[in-house]
């Protein structure tokens, strides 16, 4: 699909932290476990998990096959699964790891029963806000293309508070430029209204949405030395989990 802009800044950054990314996620194990509990009832058949960074947040045993796709493929060398409120190494013959971009997936139409995109959409940002929104819409349309008609799209992402959003959007391009001087790409966070709009344009309808609370501390990889209190992060940048179907 034409029109998207490659997010190479994010690839370089996650390549750099690949060796310790999954272990760093231990600080958010309660959050990851809540995400696992929310998503696992929908796992079945052929599953595509995009951009999970090597951390599987669903009951992988319920799937017949699992494809993990990431632009920073080194992240998938340290594969962990969330289980019993712990991160443990996993090695299963049903899991296949590939390098792939969600905006141009290397799969034919109707390939998967379940597609997962957990906390990835905000990493499709590029210096232009307009191009960033094109990227996210392109990703949703690619997911719709590879998802079977009766399949389910499981999405989670951060949704900023209204005041944060009003301040964030007008300054996004400036702060993206500023942080890029330090080799740190700035994510772009969609409002709930934007998520609904972009999903609708991509042929989806939301069947369920729920908040996923953080832990006592929140892990965020772009400034890993800062671990904000979970309750504060929930107010500023809440996390929502969506169960989505094709129209």
Descriptive labels:
247 residues, alpha/beta, Rossmann fold, 7-stranded mixed sheet, 3-stranded mixed sheet
How would you sum up this structure, described in words?
This protein has helices at 8-16, 18-24, 29-39, 129-146, 162-180, 192-201, 230-236, and strands spanning 46-50, 55-56, 65-70, 80-83, 86-89, 95-99, 112-118, 147-160, 204-211, 237-246. The protein is an alpha/beta fold and 247 residues long. It has a single domain, classed as Vaccinia Virus protein VP39 (Rossmann fold, 3-Layer(aba) Sandwich), CATH 3.40.50. The longest helix has 19 residues, at 162-180. The radius of gyration is 17 Å and the shape is globular. The two termini are 21 Å apart.
SSE order and pairing:
Elements: H1 8-16, H2 18-24, H3 29-39, E1 46-50, E2 55-56, E3 65-70, E4 80-83, E5 86-89, E6 95-99, E7 112-118, H4 129-146, E8 147-160, H5 162-180, H6 192-201, E9 204-211, H7 230-236, E10 237-246
Parallel strand pairs: 1-3, 1-7, 2-4, 3-6, 7-8
Antiparallel strand pairs: 4-5, 8-10, 9-10
